[in-house]
Amino acid sequence: MKYQPYNNLIERLSRRQLLNAAAILGTAAVAAPIFSRKTLAAPIFMDYPFQLGVASGDPQPNGVVLWTRLAPKHLDGGGMPAINVEVEWEVSPTASFASIAQKGVAIARPELGHSVHAEVTGLEPNREYFYRFRAGNEVTPTARTKTAPAAGANVDRLRYGICGCNNYEAGYFTAYRGMANENFDFIVHTGDYIYEGRDNGNRTPDTSVRRHNGQEIHTVVDYRNRYGLYKSDPDFKAAHASAPWLVTRDDHEVENNYTVVDENDIPPAVFALRKAMAYQAYYENQPFRATAMPKGPAQLLYRRLQFGNLMDISLLDTRQYRSDQPCGDGSKTNCAAINDPNATMLGAEQEKWLFDNLATVRAKWTILSQQVPIFMRENIKAAPEGQFSMDKWDAYTVARSRLMNRLKETQAPNPVALSGDVHLAYASDLKMDYRNPNSETIGVEFTGTSISSAGDGADVSATWETIKGDNPHIKYHSARRGYTAMTATQTEMRGEFKIVDKVTVPNQPIRTDKVVIATAGKPGLQVA
Ligand code: FE
Ligand code: CA
What are the tens digits of pLDDT across the range 312-369? Predict the structure, then answer.
């Protein structure tokens, strides 16, 4: 079709299209009075409206959330007229759409950046489905998703991916192409889905392989345009189209290492306005249920997803409710405040919710999917009294001990933490006391590296040779980019650390570096 300029969109609708729109309006007014504003059923667009692709998320046994967003000018405010637009969706057991399992119409509203979130129900458990959207004459590519197994159902095996930290400027999203080819049952994103910095951040010399669009982002339109840039990446779109995602947020979706305050000491009341806009754009661009609709500078993201008798996942939010980093953030030596009993990582309400969950896990594996690593990473040679990153659980030691004690007292089956944030891969045992190698191992933790953040990296971090002797609980480490391919069975949790040696060059190969295994009933990791 011929694309029309934005100003003339409504005027240039054909007579037939106007009649269609009127007919829909008339019907809708009777059948569904929710359409209180004019809704366009046969829109025409100034460019292809589905440039950000599609996504699905948060699978339940009977359904999944389907997402898309109309953004013909995805780098320039979206390019949609300020009017509601109908978007049809359909779900089929086959990619041919020979039969339709469910279908419906969602309304893309200007208030929400013309995003749609269709909460599909009535599907079969543990089953692969295909879906697509249509608006006017425009159709999305067909995408794959999968429902969760039925509650309590016997499940032999699930394969899932862990990823996070995809800085657009730092490298290509080759690892997402690898994930797209895995046909995972689901994909967990541990946060840093966008980065908020201006083009070429603070890097001297310029190491960007490609550029951010514009200045540091502050307004809802800025955040939308940044999602527009990231989500138009073809590898990112392919990974979303391959499986349902379980998305959690860390800091850069708003501002580096933020808590109740931001890193530049902006007055909290001012920062709250920025947070509200960042949270809105985050909601608009993710396959979230309505429960994640932000209320100003607050957004309920912690949630529980269950996969039959195999996995019980608590998706945590370690950013939004935490107390401020002690000793002024950064990496600090000898900071007594890391032992502050009043410091919190989850906030009281979320911590209670999690602790209740832990007492009621009936699956083989208890999964804590979160953002910043739990395991201790210390550098005794540099600082006998302790040198820690203030943004991690290492700086919230009393809260961490409460969590470990709760895992022990509930005997939650086979705890597995999934983490990100550090742009380094680790596999670590979770210990009751990290300074005593003989203390009890209570679970394991898989920390994914970044998709691209920090660029090509190296085989190991600059400090690894110095610190590894001080951290015997860390069983695997890499400073390369990539993702983790996880396989859960009734007997083991297997993590394949997938590596892309160069992300500064497109289309590089992906290799398996190491396979790390936790055996059910035997706490602790082995490297295969
Ligand atoms: Fe990051
Ligand atoms: Ca982060």
Answer: 999 999 999 999 999 999 999 999 999 999 999 999 999 999 999 999 999 999 999 9
- Report pLDDT digits (tens) over 386-445: 899 999 999 999 999 999 999 999 999 999 999 999 999 999 999 999 989 899 999 999
CA of 152 to the centre of ligand 2 (A): 34
Neighbours of ion ligand 1 (CB under 5 A): 165, 192, 453
**Ligand 1 center to 9 CA (angstroms):** 40
Identify whether the C-beta of residue 85 lies closer than 8 Å to the C-beta of residue 129.
no
pTM score:
0.93
The pocket of ion ligand 2, defined by CB under 5 A, consists of 192, 250-251, 421
CA quadruple 201, 206, 209, 213: dihedral sign: positive
The one-letter code for the residue type at 299 is Q
Domain tally, the chain: 2
Q: Determine the Cα–Cα distance for residues 348 and 332; give it in Å rounded to an integer.
A: 26
Instruction: State the helix-helix crossing angle for 397-410 and 348-358, rounded to 10 degrees.
Output: 20
Same domain flag for 99 and 194? no
Asked whether residue 98 falls in the same domain as residue 163, the answer is: no
Distance (angstroms) between ligand 2 centre and the Cα of 297 equals: 19
Largest pairwise CA distance in the chain: 79
| Whether the predicted pLDDT of 32 surpasses 90 | no
Sign of CA dihedral 182, 185, 191, 197: positive
Question: What is the residue range of 425's domain?
Answer: 157-527
